[in-house]
Amino acid sequence: MTNASNDNHLFRPNSYIGRTVPRPNAKRLLNGRGNYTDDTKLPRMVHVAFLRSPYAHARINKIDKNQAIKAPGVVAVVDGHDIAEVCAPWVGVLAHLEGMKSAEQHALAIEKASWEGEPVVAIVASTRALAEDALELIKVEWDILPVVTDMEAALGEDAEIIHESLGDNLAWRRTMDAGDVGASFDHAAHIIEERYISNRHTGVCPESRSIVADFNSADDQMTIYQSTQAPHMMQSLFAKHIGLDTHKVRVICNDVGGAYGIKVHAYPDEFATVALSYMLGRPVKFVADRRESFLSDIHARDHRIDTRVAVTANGEITAFEIDDWTGVGPYSAYPRTSAMEALQVLNFTGGQYRNRNYKGRATVVYQNKTPMSQYRAVGHPIVTMITEGMVDDAARAIGMDPLEIRRRNLIADDAYPTTSASGLPFEKLSHQASLDKLEKMINYAELRKDQAAARERGVYRGIGIATFIEMTNPGVASYGVGGAPITAQDGATVRLDANGNTTVAIGVTEQGQGSETIVAQCVASALGITLDSIKVITGDTDVTPYGGGTWGSRGAGIAGEAAVQAGKALRENILEVAAIMLQTDADSLDICENNVINHRDGEVRMPLSEIGRICYFRPDTLPPDFQAELVATRHYVPRQYPFAFTNGVQGCYIEVDIETGLIAFKKYCVVEDCGRVINPQLVDEQIRGGVVQGIGGALFEECRYNDRGELLNGTMSNYLLPTMTDVPDIEVAHIETPTSESELGAKGAGEAGTGAAAAAIMNAINDALSPLGGKVTQQPFTPERILSAIGKI
Amino acid sequence: MTTEKRLISLSVNGELQAKIVEPRMSLADFLRIELELTGTHVGCESGVCGACTVNINGQTARACTILAVQVEGDEVTTIEGASESGEFRDLQDAFHARNALQCGFCTPGMLMMSAELLTQNSKPCRQEIREYLSGNYCRCTGYEAIVDAVETVAQTRNARVGEQDD
Does position A4 have pLDDT exceeding 60, yes or no? Predict the structure, then answer.
């Protein structure tokens, strides 16, 4: 840090910034005392179950509810027409995604269902079991319609058009053409073309989506308990679509059992639950079962990408070209749309490299499968797979070492600020330092020797390297400018209580990342108090300042900075009071470990509890013209950069059993640069957990559909997730390049692990298979695909 | 669909319980809904994910694939009971220190399994820990911290036994 920062409370020796501390709020979870949404039990609460379309595309001719309404315990049976009277439909487009179109979507399908699992009828009963019993008594007359499943066929001339009002199945298309790609390909020593396929998968939150809506008609107040990442966004949406004023809607988000981007969307069944409570005037609970989670949670990453890379004989990459296709289900998700993943593929590909010639096209189409949208590391795993796949392709073509070609082409650490070929602004990244660190950490030279020795024995091992960029700290450019009620700013309110303890209310939420812990660390450091004297409150729109919630790796960088500034503001307020009480200048005082001290010599002058006592109980002893303010609120939004890019590199060493196609991890290393590290253990665990989610997509996870648009593996026994024996120990190291946009300097770390794992694994497999002339480019890299690549099957 | 309700009596966390339940009610739902022991979580409802793991008569079991009527007369321990008795406080402390949980949804089940492992194998290697817990899914941590925490507790318990031997 610079000299000026030596006096900064954040970086003093006793600061909590940069220190591993355990999460205070984890204790209740360890004792079985968490409070997840399904644990909520309210007087007169009833339960909803949904009849979901068994067909991917079918017209609803008639719904016979007569038997169901008479079933035991049933309170209401409601179809799409009924619910539309209290819940307005929506269209999942954003203004800044020019040309994007989507159809009007209702909480319950009207006229026709467009994916297998779309909610059609809601049954409310005294228990969930009774509601499910009654579902079997509903008779629906369906007309089965032709389905659209393949993404490219969706735009074919004879394709069924899912929404006639749209004219075709094209959701959105954008192209990019930077530099002179044509000339680069004309002059390239080698041009390598490849098709990559990223598989459709989903988040599989351990706690499924859950909501309890409680409308009290006596005071016109809707209270919603929801497992969500964005309470204020949901407040706006529920208010808008039910037709209530925003202040009449309170969203409470208690413990969340995993979210990963899946719980940042507005879902039709959750709108329906809120609408039902509004209709019935009593609490209604909806908890998705696992089967309906697979059918209705947002899916992601279903992409087919044709790539072309140009490289000179001496290893200079001179052009990237991509054509990305994605099928996103029948509706664009609300309110974030289903185009962001493709947008990020288009914008981010090749972004870590100096090359200025880049051409790309992204095509987003509608199809009759579960809607796709944002899931952890939106687009990044696809971007990194194709970018680092192309770079390895180029290296192989000219016989250059994969580290060497990266070293020659990565943007140099002294070249900042700069932009990518696609125009992404980079404040300061550390690709070269990260790569150097990874090379040492993974012991690259020794691994190459081991690999050669193993090959002598007929054992196939491979090293995979994947450098990456990661988008964090999203500003208003992501959603706000497009017209969505999604704030990029966050606020923190810090209050000194009468006994000298501190309460912080903040707009981000806690899903286990440790949001509350790092907020406490930021406030404690800025204010000068100990961690055990702080309580952090999140997840209540009635209580916390307006904030975006926890997604897009914004917690540390944005909420952390708001917490720092609020803590500083309260310190100033406290010192103003203390100076009056001690008859000295505020400048001569400071706060350290819950005491007001002399700035100069550290002598303790009075505890904060004394400040609290005087200000709250004996203000009569203070000057009559002075009013103490022991509450401070500060907000923060990044303005200089539209988002804070981070970077890093993953490296893995694997062994491929060429008889079974199984792979075994020998080593897995990650170097990442999230700027200022607030809590090293929490950052490392974000990386590890992220890598394992990435391993899931790379090796196991896939939503498999047949040509009728039916999901074939909607249970945890046949949708494979990584288990404890499938994954390695992961070494994590950091380079710290703080952003100078905020005082804290933190960037995000939530996407880094997931974003590059599939690329590193693919490159390692292909390195191992290269003597056999085989290559995999389609995720998941299953034993079958590996054996097929080397001609064994 | 509804069949006649039945009276069942059993011990849960050392307390005798007598309740009238539908035969189709799972033990997980019984614990959560009838007894309000919400620390037992339901993740997959098919015995795959392990979030609902409880202890029945000294052995772990998946509460989502057992019916409440099947545990008539049995002794059931849930995360609430184990926490209050303090029988694996060291595991909980180690999970806390090592951040071997994020969202915490899998954690009660993970603790029940880890505790059972350490009663059966006091010196498990990392691979043995991974294998014993491989039926418990965690989506947040990447598992390494959990292996570290269990390994630490095994080592600490062994060191304590070693001291007593001296």
Answer: no
- Cα A233–A238–A243 angle (5° rounding)? 130
Structural domains in chain B?
A: 6-82 (3.10.20.30), 88-165 (1.10.150.120)
> Strands A502-506 and A534-537, how do they pair?
parallel
Nearest by CB to A258, from B25, B133, B139: name it: B139
Does residue A463 surpass a pLDDT of 50? yes
Give the pLDDT confidence score for residue B121 in this predicted structure. Answer: 97
DSSP A85-103: TTS--B----TTSTT----
Q: Both tokens of residue A777?
A: 């480019």
pLDDT reading at A1 higher than 80? no
Mark whether A396 and A446 lie in a shared domain.
yes
Q: Is the pLDDT of residue A474 over 50?
A: yes
Count up the domains in chain A and report the number: 3
Query: Is the ipTM here above 0.85?
Result: yes
Given a cut of 60, whether residue A23 has pLDDT beyond it is: yes
Cβ within 8 Å, pair A207-B22: no
Count A/B contacts: CB-CB distance under 8 Å: 176
Interface of A with B in 160-179 (CB under 8 A): none
Contact between chains at A729 and B147 (C-beta distance less than 8 A): yes
Tell whether A697 lies on the interface with B, counting CB pairs under 8 A.
Answer: no
- Return the percentage of chain A with pLDDT > 70, whole number: 99
If 0-12 CB within 10 Å is exposed, 13-18 middle and 19+ buried, where does residue A340 land? buried
- Is there a single domain that holds both residue A135 and residue A236? yes
Residue A708 and residue A690 in one domain: yes
| Gyration radius of chain B's alpha carbons | 17
User: What phi, psi does B71 have (nearest 5°)?
Assistant: -105, 20
Question: Within this chain, do residues A389 and A443 fall inside the same structural domain, yes or no?
Answer: yes
Q: Are residues A91 and A29 part of one domain?
A: no
